[in-house]
UniProtKB/TrEMBL annotation:
It comes from Corynebacterium pseudodiphtheriticum. The chain crosses the membrane at residues 95-117, 123-148. This is DUF1707 domain-containing protein. InterPro entries: DUF1707_SHOCT-like. PANTHER family: MEMBRANE PROTEIN, MEMBRANE PROTEIN-RELATED. Residues 174-194 are annotated as: Disordered. Residues 12-64 form the DUF1707 domain. Keywords: Membrane, Transmembrane, Transmembrane helix.
Amino acid sequence: MSTPFNQSDASMRLSDADRDQAMNALGHALAEGRLQIDEFDDRCAAVAQAQYQRDLDQVFVDIPFTQQATGGAVEKYYSESQVQRAREAAKKPRLGTSILTSLAGMIAFPGFVALAFEAGSTGTAVLFGGLAMLSAFVVPAIWIALYVMQIGPDSWHRPSPAQLERQRRKEIRAAEAGRRAEQKELTRQQWAERRHQAAELSGDAMNMAREQLNKWKNR
């Protein structure tokens, strides 16, 4: 069903749930062919930055605000850029490199000691010892590369809906925090300007009072 925004509530502040619902409505518009991918991304960014209901009115000025999918089940849509950002946020290349380096050191030293003891043994024993040491490193290294560093095709590491939802809410909270910081800085600047103006007015008033007092004295 399509429900337009109530224009009488244009000055109402938005909640995270309102922004989430608006993004889902944009997803429906994309699925229906009303929006192109780049338009969808731009409007999602506008929704994330929206602070008042009137901000959303501008986003949905030419498309319906669809709240629910067919059958009443809420269906969520995510842009390709949101998917990519969620995947990038899940990658931990530095952590993976650090773990691999530590793992290599932990395996290399005892392996070197074991091979030193086996140096007097047959070549077969040394070979099996080396293979065992290599396998002890390769298996966890592959796991770290796949699940921590997320190396491989995009299809292997496509974020789950839960990960995408967490990333979306994180971006909304970050945008809201940025708005609050900007508003706080603006308020501070306005307060400083008012104090400066008050000081100037006070100084002008004192000068006028002195001039008037001097005129009275000189009469």
